[in-house]
Design goal:
Shape: globular
Structural class: mainly alpha
Distance between the termini: 50 Å
Mean pLDDT: 76
Strand content: under 5%
Order of helices and strands: HHHHHHH
Number of strands: 0
Largest sheet: none
Radius of gyration: 16 Å
Length: 130
């Protein structure tokens, strides 16, 4: 493939990724799946339809990097450091704020689910018993 792992993403490519990522069904699948290769294969195919030639690994890496950078800036802002910024912060904020609060709280506390750890589904009854 002509686009290597080290090739930088253009602004248009990132915008295309964000447009696909912002779709409700994509956000829902990304939230509910630990092994998400199939979702990123689908995202890569959708991006190809939009003229962006990236493989699923590149899409997953960019997704993870954007989320990490977003959370870093968001944490800096809540800590009082408004100087830290990123180009697509508002777009990502709109996408990531629509994810369930339980996942965001777990990730902000530095805890992520591993492939061997069971995924907990919270409900009003389990919240009140814990």
């Amino acid at each position: 493939m002509e686009s290597g792992a080290g090739k930088h993403w253009t602004e248009e490519e990132v915008k295309a990724l964000l447009s696909v990522w912002s779709e409700k069904n994509i956000r829902k699948q990304l939230h509910g799946t630990l092994r998400n290769k199939g979702i990123f294969i689908y995202i890569a195919k959708r991006l190809q339809e939009l003229g962006v030639c990236r493989d699923w690994k590149q899409c997953r890496a960019k997704y993870k990097n954007l989320k990490y950078e977003y959370r870093t800036v968001k944490y800096a802002h809540t800590s009082g450091d408004a100087t830290k910024t990123m180009k697509f912060f508002h777009d990502l904020d709109a996408i990531l704020r629509s994810e369930p609060v339980t996942q965001l709280a777990a990730e902000e506390n530095g805890r992520c689910c591993s492939a061997t750890e069971p995924r907990l589904r919270t409900s009003p009854t389990t919240d009140s018993t814990q």
